[in-house]
Amino acid sequence: MKNWFQFLLSIYGHIVLFLLGFLFFSTSYGQEDLPFSKEVKEIQVHADAIWDESEETIVFTGSSSIRLWKDLQDRFPDSQIINTGFGGSQASDLEHHMDELILNYNPKKVFIYEGDNDISVKKRPRVIVDTFNDIIAYLGKKRPDMKIILISAKPSIARWHLKRRYMRLNKRLRKLASNIESVDFADVWTPMLNKRKLKRNLFIEDGLHMNSNGYDLWYGVIKEFMY
Asked: Boundaries of each SGNH hydrolase-type esterase domain copy (predicted)?
């Protein structure tokens, strides 16, 4: 009986050690090995070096259309702009890094561009908008006075075959913004079209990312939400 009792204790001890090890591994993975963790840290280092916490801040974040907008600060010289865009990201990636990319800079406004890559990997618009709902709820809880501007998904040559999915996503994002007082919707889709045809002179060679003509057009839309 004594040997049997010791055997049970031994098994119980191994189970406890296994569970503790699994918990440690899961926690470590969640903190250190999320997608874009390394890139987000690099973005933080750069942003921290230029951010003046005594000034009001406006954050632009999202995927590569934001990351590649290099002259944001020059276009809006009267505001302190922090660009935390990270190329290739989806809405779910931003959801994991909202503190580092948005809230740490205590912004009065944040412009978010996500959904483009989500559609490209065939996520359903409903699923994408559910993620946006979670993002907005978290940001609203942490900073209820902060204005959130959702930038519509843009059309592009490379992804024009997915235009109907993009249009459905934008319709849902517009509706989402209309139902929440702290959220606005900036439509960059419509002005990038000539009636129903895409303005092809807005893009660099890859047919996905924009040239200065594209960013000129975006500037015309975004400036209406800056002040």
From this structure: 69-217
SS3 193: strand
pLDDT at residue 21 in the model? 44
pLDDT at 147 over 60: yes
What's the CA dihedral at 215, 221, 226, 227 to 10 degrees? 140
CATH architecture of the domain with residue range 37-225: 3-Layer(aba) Sandwich (3.40)
The pLDDT mean for the chain works out to: 90
Q: Give the helix ranges, DSSP H, for 51-90.
A: 64-67, 72-75
Question: Can you read off the two tokens belonging to residue 84?
Answer: 């935390």
- As separate numbers, helices (DSSP H) first and strands (DSSP E) second, the chain gives 10, 7
Domain boundaries, the chain: 1-33, 37-225
